[in-house]
Design goal:
87 residues
């Protein structure tokens, strides 16, 4: 996005210098190109986000803190049952 900012400012300056139809059409064309570029970047970002979310979902049982917590709960339940058997 930052690399597009000077271009937009240049287009604004060009229009202020000579606000006629030819310049306006050129600005509209350039802005449409910028819009398409930005849309493409956003689409790529959303695709990457989908991959990350999918990977996190697939690895949900492999996450170490969650895995440790689950195993701790299992040990606690086992200890309670063992205590009941010993009584």
């Amino acid at each position: 996005m930052e690399e597009k900012e000077p271009t937009i400012k240049d287009l604004q300056a060009d229009y202020k210098k000579s606000p006629n139809n030819e310049v306006s059409q050129e600005i509209v064309t350039k802005l449409a190109t910028l819009r398409d570029d930005i849309s493409s970047m956003l689409e790529s970002a959303y695709d990457c986000q989908d991959v990350v979310v999918d990977t996190q979902y697939q690895m949900s049982d492999c996450q170490i803190p969650v895995n440790i917590r689950v195993r701790g709960n299992e040990i606690e339940q086992f200890s309670e049952k063992l205590g009941q058997l010993q009584d």
